[in-house]
Specification:
The protein is an alpha+beta fold. Helix content is 52%, strand content 12%. The strands form 5 sheets. Strands 3-4-5-2-1-8-9 form a 7-stranded mixed β-sheet. A two-stranded antiparallel sheet has the order 6-7. The protein has a two-stranded parallel sheet with strand order 10-11. The structure holds cytidine-5'-triphosphate (CTP). The site of cytidine-5'-triphosphate has 11 residues, from strand 2 and helix 7.
Length: 471
């Protein structure tokens, strides 16, 4: 396993271990990712010391440079510092057991084996010795390497114990299965199902961090389907859980909106790595259950789901501790607009409709088009191609009109000050009326988005309102 120990830090740790006369190992995600040859390998390095982790961290840091700042978490017996690109964390080996009503562990010193047992999965319990005599020796008491080869997620102990020690691990199991394209072993999966209700003691921040990793993986549907099947999803995301299912009336069925949403996400994941664009895909149909109606003439309808859905987003973001900032506004906007480009694919679409979409979407128009293209989930290849061709035409029209009218970042060509100055008036209602009139005239194509034409219109509208030009 020496191939994993290419970083100079391991040699330094090894020297310090001799001086302090302690056993020391690199363990966890670093070893797993090194064996899997993952891109992320080497970012974070976890070191376990059979002794005092904090002393070890301080001594190693001091050996590298006096300038290194060591962060110490006394309560947990851990310490960490940054070394070049990596975060190196040191912990004293421990036995750990969590009280059932909280996540606060009670900790006692333990052996390497104790420390490996308290870890979440066999593939995360792999250790490599850093002591001189056994440098590079691999310690794998639970056959984690064979699980890596078989692509299996399995807990080292009885899953009920591992998951009740920290219920977040149920989310982690699904996240790893999704990120690494692994299967969760049957007994471990059963353990998740029977402990799903315990997720409620985990903080929303930690749950959302795992959910985000699922969303950012190559095929988010893999993780979301397991979240649904295990009963975890309904614990923290009932709105998404609600999307599942099909209703039938008069032999007419609507599509399963959960499966559709997952397909949209997977489609989008092939074309964009943006987390919040993926959130928009996850939430684009979130109000379908709330707006569902059956009409004898047209069948199932979901009128206004884009608008109601966009209104649901702040509460969802708040509960999941997602940022209530520009990112949330962006998701709201895309959800609200996600049907608009479809309405532009009809032949008789006016330039004015295109201008209005450009005005409302602004710089997010490209992302909106990506979302709409991902939203085509028909199984009929000819139909999919027809929709894609239509969207290609919409893109063309959008480009043409944007080049002519520059509406993406619309700045009013006439300002409030211009109006005050032109008519010698005080700030008041008329200014808003004139500005709105000019904006609407530009969007309707009555005048171009140019200052001269806008000023002419300002004078005309002002006179209509009974204002007099300042001479
Ligand atoms: N660990 C655990 N239970 C948790 C979290 C972490 O047993 N709830 C252990 C695992 O052995 C894990 C190590 O702590 O490998 C480091 O955790 P972390 O850095 O969160 O995860 P990684 O496995 O390194 O993976 P990633 O970086 O992808 O999150």
């Amino acid at each position: 396993m020496k191939k994993c120990l290419y970083n100079k830090i391991f040699g330094i740790i090894s020297d310090v271990a001799e001086e302090l006369e302690v056993d020391v190992y690199v363990i966890g995600g670093f070893v797993r990712d090194c064996i899997l040859e993952r891109k992320s390998a080497g970012k974070d390095i976890d070191i376990v010391v059979i002794g005092n982790g904090i002393t070890m961290a301080k001594t190693v840091a001091g050996r590298i440079s006096r300038k290194i700042k060591v962060n110490i978490f006394k309560n947990f017996g851990t310490a960490m510092f940054r070394y070049k690109e990596a975060e190196i964390e040191f912990v004293g080996a421990r036995k750990e057991s969590y009280k059932s009503a909280s996540r606060k562990p009670s900790v006692e010193a333990g052996s390497l084996r104790d420390d490996q047992e308290r870890r979440d999965f066999t593939i995360n319990a792999l250790a490599i010795s850093l002591n001189r005599k056994t440098y590079g020796k691999f310690l794998d008491p639970f056959d984690g390497v064979s699980d890596l080869e078989k692509k299996v997620i399995r807990t080292p102990l009885d899953p009920v114990k591992t998951f009740s020690d920290d219920p977040l691990r149920m989310m982690r199991a699904i996240r790893f299965a999704c990120q690494l394209d692994f299967k969760i072993e049957a007994k471990t999966l059963k353990g998740i199902k029977s402990n799903a209700y315990r997720l409620k003691i985990v903080s929303p921040e930690r749950i959302t961090a795992e959910l985000n990793k699922i969303l950012l993986s190559d095929r988010p549907s893999v993780g979301l389907n397991i979240l649904y099947d295990t009963g975890l999803l309904e614990q923290f995301f009932p709105e998404l859980h609600e999307l599942k299912g099909i209703d039938t009336k008069d032999n007419r069925a609507h599509k399963d909106n959960f499966d559709h949403t997952l397909q949209v996400l997977d489609n989008l994941a092939q074309n964009s790595d943006s987390l919040y664009l993926r959130w928009a895909a996850l939430l684009h149909d979130i109000a379908k259950p709330a707006t569902k109606k059956y009409d004898e003439k047209v069948g199932w309808t979901f009128h206004g789901h884009e608008y109601i859905g966009s209104k649901m987003i702040p509460d969802i973001f708040k509960r999941l501790r997602l940022p209530l900032n520009e990112n949330m506004k962006y998701v709201k906007k895309l959800v609200a607009l996600h049907l608009r480009p479809i309405s532009l694919t009809q032949d008789e679409v006016t330039d004015s409709a295109i201008r209005r979409l450009l005005f409302e979407a602004g710089d997010d128009i490209e992302d909106l088009m990506l979302l709409c293209e991902a939203d085509i989930t028909s199984k009929n290849i000819r139909k999919v191609q027809r929709h894609l061709d239509n969207f290609a035409l919409v893109r063309l029209k959008l480009k043409e009109i944007e080049e002519r009218d520059h509406l993406r970042n619309f700045q009013p060509p006439v300002s409030g000050e211009d109006i005050i100055e032109a008519f010698g008036i005080k700030p008041g209602r008329n200014i808003g009326i004139i500005k709105e009139y000019i904006k609407e005239s530009i969007l309707d194509g009555i005048i171009p988005n140019e200052r001269k034409e806008a000023l002419d219109l300002m004078y005309r509208k002002g006179e209509e309102l009974g204002l007099r030009r300042k001479s």
